[in-house]
Amino acid sequence: RMNATKLLVEGALAAGWADRIAYYHRDQSITYTDLHREVHRYAAAMRTLGVVPGDRVLVRITDTPQLVFTLLAAHAIGAVAIPTYIQLRTEDLVYRLENAGVRFAFVGATLIEEMAPAATRLAEVGVVVLPSDPTGNFRSLADRLPDGPIEADYHDRQGEDLPMIVYTSGS
After folding, report:
1. What is the mean pLDDT of residues 80-107?
2. 49, 146 contact by CB (below 8 A)
3. Rounded to two decimals, what is the model's pTM?
4. Which DSSP string corresponds to 156-169?
């Protein structure tokens, strides 16, 4: 029984690494304290959206801190993350959404163009745009991110729990 996000984040803080850099992105340095805060804000937002342990969540976000926060938050709450290549087109997304039984799709605002037609074909998938939806058609994660400190709350995962589904590119 373990939760890999808990081991990573809480382990780093317990080791005294709170101010160490966990992630660099362009000119931004994200410490383990920052990572802890954002992962739990994202996890809280996911819960308010209705994501529960075992839910399949497609993640379509460019290589940014938001991608890291989303993947770690999904794992923290016991959801099954399904990261996608940003080059995928609508038909590829529809296939993954249907094949994996996805309940939620977390999509970066810059990648909504290919997801929007897929979402209209699969109304049962809740699309959530990060940080917010420029089209106004989908829910925005920014609207659900809580302010202030968030209590750490990790799903008690078992060894048999599926943490992630990764589709190959087919090449």
Report:
1. 95
2. no
3. 0.94
4. ---TTS--B-----
